[in-house]
Write a structure and sequence with these properties.
GMP Synthetase, Chain A, domain 3, 3-stranded mixed β-sheet, two-stranded antiparallel ribbon, single chain, 2 domains
């Protein structure tokens, strides 16, 4: 690992040794049952975990940005993840919708752009043609 790891503010790890139909866990913490989204077995799938990770990161980032701008916290985030492709070449499509009540649409777009650049999960996805972020006045289905 690089020296940047020595400067980490926080580290964690996730372990899965059972595959898609099994369990994943954080040592000493969270344990989730996993399953494929293509069947009706109980469990959480990677698409759901990605949507939760991105929506939580964007929401927390927006809350901090609103506070910095002395605005009440009204932002809400909806992340949709689609699983596409065929055997040996699957992809995720990720679309984040950000709705911020109480400000004009231009301001909401500016706050969205700032959150997109600051959110760590968004930074990981940035540059992918499969990732989009949009400012909305109401949540819509793709």
């Amino acid at each position: 690992m690089t020296s940047r790891w020595q400067q980490a503010l926080y580290t964690t790890e996730g372990i899965n040794s059972e595959g898609l139909e099994g369990h994943a866990y954080v040592p000493g913490g969270l344990k989730v049952q996993t399953s494929s989204p293509l069947n009706s077995h109980p469990g959480t799938n990677p698409e759901q975990l990605l949507s939760l990770s991105l929506s939580t990161c964007l929401e927390a980032t927006l809350e901090a940005i609103e506070r910095e701008h002395q605005l009440p916290h009204t932002a809400a985030v909806r992340v949709q993840v689609a699983f596409i492709g065929e055997r040996a070449h699957y992809e995720f499509l990720v679309n984040a919708q950000i709705k911020i009540d109480g400000v004009d649409f231009k301001t909401a777009q500016e706050l969205t752009a700032e959150a997109e650049k600051r959110c760590c999960v968004s930074q990981l996805l940035a540059g992918s043609q499969n990732y989009t972020v949009e400012t909305v006045t109401k949540f819509t289905d793709n």
